[in-house]
């Protein structure tokens, strides 16, 4: 028996022993060479990393077994794993932020340049037809476009006030030209505009043109403003939401996921995919924007369809010159009736001696011929595109990001630094305590499911304050866009409620499309009549139009005449009213 003892001692190491348990990979190789190589390449001081495994009693997060990490190394890894996770989240949402920012820029440029083209086209047609006659009164028209632009860009005063002021100033200039034999004092002109602005409509010098212009341009501008504001709000909210504030529980789970393998001396052992998904779901569950995100996208698409359909911004801006021309023609054709009503209510003005009367407009200027621009000569838009194409691109891009927040954990765990590739799911991986297979179930992203997350305790109270604020911002933008799709300006309604408590707001019925007859908008609470604003001195020729900043009109853009319907053949006789004073 004694002769067999040396042989048994030689064969003992070859006999199979009990299976390798958790942490056995560190007991098999007690070297930290691989960890030193990886962390050294990341800039860690090798003086902080022992060459061989040491006792891990000092560790706060990783298993307190044999380790390659000192306390300082563990703290640095905690910060690094958090930064890596936050970087992956922001990188994963960069396409979404870029998409919303690019769509905002394109639509904003399109709407602004359509307003500029409308202004330049009106000026081109009028100045080409009437020359000096139009230039003498161009401030009125430039002022209208300035205030329309202010409303769109700066959320200025209501469009009802802007359009009412424009028609009142136009009447102040045009009505005296119908009666050069009279001198009209400021009181008479004030009475005239008061009759025009009364809710009963006792005097309608421009017929139905003011109402139709208000309906078309206001509805389109309200929708355009709400749309670009919605895109900007979405970009801002997404950008802030992607800057994830990591909780302490999430920070510890991320360290167990990607930092602890380095401390155990096995940096090449990738975390299990299920392990990563549970950590990512837990860290992001209270940061996402669902279900408000889907409603927000639906609101964007709904309003985009309105803008290229019944609320067409292109047709609305092109109609400005047409409606003004129709209004002037109505005033000329019904001058006898309008004048009789005005003289009855405001009194008869004093006659002017014949030698002091204004000279009539030269016929060659008043009737100068003009050429209608052919459809094929017109560019698509000033931005080189059209609204249909912009909406198509928006719909295509938003389709890619509809499930973004639900798929963000999959995007994060698809990175090679966070988890093993899905093709290696059957191979042993890092489970959080050692080599093996991840046995815990992968929980869903809903708050109820996250209560059973095995990797970190998720707050049962739901989203944090910052996330709730972001969701409220999305809801507000969605409500504004849905109201604009119904022809309502929520911003003006809030202002009306603050001023009068009526809550009526501005509402515009969905009743106008190209080629259809207009229908009266919904009834609104009556508004008190008010004269147009004046800043210049009173008297003749000192109407409110002088306060407009003509320099605000855009320059440097090629002026292109709009496709002109047959009604524009009436321009010559209509603008002849605006003769020199």
Automatic annotation (TrEMBL):
According to UniProt, the name of this protein is: Glypican-2
Phosphoprotein as UniProt keyword:
no
Superkingdom of origin? Eukaryota
Residues annotated as signal peptide? 1-19
| InterPro entries recorded | Glypican, Glypican_CS
Where is this chain's protein located in or outside the cell?
Cell membrane
Which Pfam families does the record match to this protein?
Answer: Glypican
Q: Where is the composition biased (Basic and acidic residues)?
A: 361-379
Q: Where is the composition biased (Pro residues)?
A: 519-529
Q: Name the protein family.
A: Belongs to the glypican family.
Q: Which residues lie within the region annotated Disordered?
A: 349-379, 492-557
Q: Which of UniProt's keywords are assigned here? A: Cell membrane, Glycoprotein, GPI-anchor, Heparan sulfate, Lipoprotein, Membrane, Proteoglycan, Signal
